Amino acid sequence: MIVKVVVDVPTGGTDRLFDYKVPVHLLPMIEIGMRVIVPFGPRKVQGFVISTSEETELETVKEIAEILDVTPVLTDELLQLGEWLTNSAICFKITAYQAMLPAALRAKYKKEIKLVDQNRILEIPEELRVWFEHRDVVDWEEFKSNHVNLLPLIKRAISMGVLEAVYVVKDKVTYKKVKVVEPFCREDLSNQLMHLGNRAAKQKEVIEYFIKFPTAVPITDLIEQAETTRGTIKALIEKNVLVEKELEISRDPYANRSFKRTNPLPLTRNQKKVIEPIYHTIENQKHETFLIHGVTGSGKTEIYLQSISKVIGQEKEAIVLVPEISLTPQMVQRFKERFGSLVAVLHSGLSVGEKYDEWRKIHNGSVKVVVGARSAVFAPFKNIGIIIIDEEHEATYKQEENPRYHARDVAIQRASYYNCPLILGSATPSLETYARAKKGVYKLLSMLERVNDVTLPTVEIVDMREELKSGNRSMFSKLLFDKLTDRISRGEQSVLFLNRRGYSTFVMCRDCGYVAECPHCDISLTYHQTSRLLKCHYCGHQENMPKTCSSCNSEHIRFFGSGTQKVEEEITKVLPGARVIRMDVDTTRKKGAHEKLLTAFAQGKADILLGTQMIAKGLDFPNITLVGVLAADSMLHLPDFRASERTFQLLTQVSGRAGRHKLPGEVVIQTYTPEHYSIDLVRQHDYIAFFEREMSVRKLQNYPPYYFITIVQVSHPEITKVIEVTERIGSFLRRSLSDKAIVLGPVASPIARIKDRYRYQCMIKYKNEPTLLAVLKEINENYKRETQQGTLQISIDKNPFVLM
DNA sequence: AGCACGCCGACT
DNA sequence: GTCGGCGTGCTC
Asked: Domain Helicase ATP-binding, which positions (predicted)?
């Protein structure tokens, strides 16, 4: 039998199927969708079996070396999905398949140099002998880094046949093991009990425990449950009453937490109206995409939960995507509470091993629901009954590296394969999605009231220019300051939002206007107070804060703009005694830090929660009655056509944190452009008006949803090279596409240099361009040689989300 | 990716 | 005349 294999070599030249014979002893095991190890050129690589065949056109075909899986890791559906992904994201096949699997299933490669025969050690050059005196295998990387000059000698020894290059493919998979004990013979336990002497009271207790629970139990649990000690257990093992074994277990990241089970809540009339059509498609096994446009606090989650219950009742599975779980622990909690151990959780905070274990639970069918971030859309279920994408508009659903897919598109693909509903939920849908819903491509379901008649918070907008005029130079307006003071005295909590981490946004010389910039990127450096360093948020470069201006030597070098660190400092100055929790990338880097900070806030250990983007989502604390946005325009003026949309979405979302329960909420938004519609319409809670307004802007500028866009970005350490290549690509695009397509550029990317690489781009705006895929593939093909060498990079992004 | 093959310049 | 630079092409 012949198998066709995609090999783990992500280049243009190898982006196809290779034929391999299956040796007789592997014939009974091999299946489509399994990982295999195959010889490829001089080495061995991992690959995926895509299809089988009885014959091959080739004369010489090698045999597969090993099968890595017992059951296929990719189902037929996922293999098909991978093919679709290859085209829609313009990536290599291998890249598409690997994106679907947890990192633990990706192979690791190692090259070793082996001494063929210890007796022939004298045949290798003298300088090399020390390495092989006490061992016959040497790690190539280790050797190479120590002795560059000896490489030719190694080569010669290999060609002489004394040494041999060995390529090892290692499966990264690790299973967590735990030591367990179980009775040697269950039936014999009571017999053993009688034979023990009276002095062995402790041992008797353990045996009695096993009579009650005669299954294997981890030693640590046994000590706790039977109130015994290691010594006692050991004695019983020596007497052959118990046996010790190693058992493979799943690492359960939520193991130490218990979840109180909840029952479905009674639905409000509006919720019933919304869930009705969803139930309908579930019952009729129809594919349909729904957009639930529901204001914050309107009870979308309960809709999700009850739809999933229905699906589980049909013996089917559910995928729930959330923007970033570590940011929304409350969401996970609600799923765990409702479905208990039927839920697997996949998010970036888990270790490689933990992710793999969660993946395995999905793969072997022991869970029915997965709640996860973007990549969970590839969960290897075999009978999906519903897919839900919460906060549908979030940028995290778009992967910004290859394969550059949008989870929403993948979800549509999978849901239509399984004839099941896809639900998109958001208080502020992306324009693309809402436009499709209005056109009837998606079915629109609206929930424009909060449950239990909780009113939406009142939003007040403060013009910071007026504040300045009236002599207030602090970062808090009078209104916000008064309200903050008021909350503290009443014992209620506030949330302060600022979209900038660090201390100051930039450092400038007051005499000459010099701004400290990253030497590797075209971006200004941010001062971090705690470390007293200037940091680049793009490449991680850091340097000491200069005492004098490096351009004119003046001492008048100052901080401008405020980051979260500076706000924190300011609060302690103007509101002494206020307890503040700051949440940004810098305070939440450590594992579990997120939850810790949020728990502390929930327990009332702080009056003010100050943070960046990450506090905008999912927080639901009854005691928050005030939300303050310090600088609403910070994202408004970014060079991105979605800047207004993002501002509106973010402000609406942050506002939604206030007054979600009994206490009414208030929001104060500080801005320098109060008249801008994306700020003003937040005050009125009017998404529809915002949609109409923004749509007219997009129409005028030929942007999505009226046009699709694709960006071809070129980067290289030399600016002349970048410009030259981008120009050639630009004219090629103009030449190849229809005259209805608009090709813009080449222009420098908004951040023209990152990590010492210059970046230029062309933007294509189009409505219907059937040849686009072929044209883009041709670009890749043309520059294959140079991109493979690594100096030139061409990235093609269909439907980019962040234009930076 | 990794490696072999092969064609030009600077050495014994 | 040979050694070795890295451009080019191939891997079932």
From this structure: 281-447
Point out the nucleotide closest to A38 (alpha carbon to C1′). C12
In a domain, A541, yes or no: no
| Domain extent at residue A13 | 2-72
**Is the same domain home to A63 and A12?**
yes
The closest of A623, A630, A628 to A667, measured between CA atoms, is A628
The answer as to whether A552 is a domain residue is no
Q: Structure tokens of A268? A: 């409000």
Distance in angstroms, CA of A117 to C1' of C2? Answer: 32
In this complex, the answer to whether residue A791 has its CB under 7 A from any atom of chain B, a nucleic strand, is no
Q: Round to whole Å and give the CA distance between A455 and A338.
A: 27
Total domains in chain A come to 6
On whether the CB atoms of residues A236 and A206 are closer than 8 A, the answer is yes
Residues A384 and A366 placed together within one structural domain of the fold: yes
**A412 shares a domain with A344:** yes
Residues in chain A: 804
Which pLDDT tens digit goes with each residue over A85-110? 999 999 999 999 999 999 999 988 88
Q: Strands, DSSP E only, in A470-623?
A: 493-497, 506-509, 526-528, 533-535, 542-544, 557-560, 580-583, 608-611
Instruction: Give percent above pLDDT 90 in chain A.
Output: 48
- The separation, in Å, between residue A104 CA and nucleotide C11 C1' comes to 26
Q: Are A318 and A361 part of one and the same domain?
A: yes
Same domain, A670 and A692: yes
Residues A290 and A189 in one domain: no
The span from the CA of A301 to the CA of A291, in Å, is 14
* Structural domain includes residue A553: no
Apex A106 CA angle, A105 and A109, nearest 5: 130
State the Cα–Cα distance between residues A521 and A751, nearest whole angstrom: 8
d(CA A326, CA A322) in angstroms, rounded, equals: 10
Strand C atom within 7 Å of A12 CB: no
Cα separation of A645 and A640, whole Å? 10
Report pLDDT digits (tens) over A494-526.
Answer: 999 988 776 667 788 888 778 888 888 777 888
Contact present, A744 and A765 (Cβ < 8 Å): yes
Residue A247 has pLDDT above 80, yes or no: no
DSSP state, residue A408: H
Distances (CA, A) of A502 to A537, A560, A628, A643: 9, 12, 19, 22
**Of the candidates A101, A94, A229, which has an alpha carbon nearest to the alpha carbon of residue A171?**
A101
Q: What is the mean pLDDT of chain A?
A: 88
Residue A689 scores a pLDDT above 80: yes
Q: Compute the distance between CA of residue A454 and CA of residue A665 in angstroms, rounded to an integer.
A: 10
Does any strand C atom come closer than 7 Å to the Cβ of A13? yes
**Cis, bond preceding A664 (omega within 30 deg of 0):** no
